[in-house]
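Look over what follows to help learners.
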Amino acid sequence: MTNSSKQDPDREPIRILAPEGHKFSRRDLMKFAAVSTGAGLLGTHQDQFLLSHSSNLSALQAAAKRSLKAVGKINKNLYIYTWGQYDNPTTFSAFQSATGIQLQFGSYNSNEAMIAKLELAQGTAGYDIVVPTGGYIPEMVAKGLLLPLNKSKIPNFSKLDTKLLNFPWDPHNRYSIPKDYGTTGFIYDKTVITRKMTTWADFAKAAALPAVSGKVSLLDDPNDVMGIALWNSGIDWNTPKSSQLHAANKWLIKNLAPHVSNFDSYPGATGGLVNGSYVLSQAWNGDARQAILHAPKRFAWVVPEPASEIWVDNWAIAKGAKDLNTAYAFIDYVIDPVVAANELIYTGYSSPVSNVRNFLPKNLPAANMIFLTADQSKRLTSYVVNSSNNLRTQLYSEFKAATAAG
């Protein structure tokens, strides 16, 4: 399949999934993991596991055909606007070979960039499916960028875990179907930090230890960094109050700024933890898992108390979608348990499909970092974009400037 001269310049055929020249997001994890593997940072056990446990192509194709039957007449093209390097390539190739539907992609590296493009096009960008993070859905709905879903054409919706549905940012999932989810926590080197760590207060205290200070990394994300102070203080992560946000930033500057060496969203996959540059890192679970896979006895992962983040990325249908039935068939396909398992094995992020574990190998490495416990789930909140967004960005810049890394 080749690009047409009439195509959107950002749209790419199925064989090209990675954008260039943009700020990285957590979805670029797989790209970094591949680089790390090539550099010898990950063991061959994980590489062999991925190769030997990819879902059978015929099973994926059968799932695609089942989903196709549920929707009726379709077109033979589907245009998806999504994050780069965020899906198992076999998920797409199996759907395309089984249905004859040509999949083409545009890619982006931030929700803001995706929203700006759709808004500029006023519903005529040509994309059928988009993949927003949950907290951005209210903004997209308010701007008329998404279409409400007809769930009767998504039979696999009934297989989704109800705990991953009906979030405040999309009550009753009128506009979105969860794709996968993860959390924010921290990972530390147990050979250096020998005390047990369970809270964000523990994180801040450990950062100040002589053997740790200067070897601490934080996520390069304003809301996750602000979250450390807000969660530690028991303040709603979504607070719009400027007084609370200013106080939280002062706490960060006092307690963490002197000890931070870098803002790195991939301390596991890019090797900062493995090579000893960091001994304490705020991280997303999928990336931290890369370090755990390399040295499970050396590192410990914490989903901290009293609270932390759950993020959920979602499938949604863009305003101006050319063929709703084709979009419904694809969305139903990717939440089929067989396909969901294929995705999870590749990305290391958890699936919203309730029985996905029945389709996974029993020896899935570091599975405890993928699946949340009931206790962890109760402590997690999702961020919803609000009126404080610009202030949070400003305060984050001030905090970065106050650190050694700044």
Observations:
- Residues 11-43+54-181+312-369 form a domain with the D-Maltodextrin-Binding Protein; domain 2 fold (CATH 3.40.190.10).
- The chain has two domains: 11-43+54-181+312-369, 182-310+371-402.
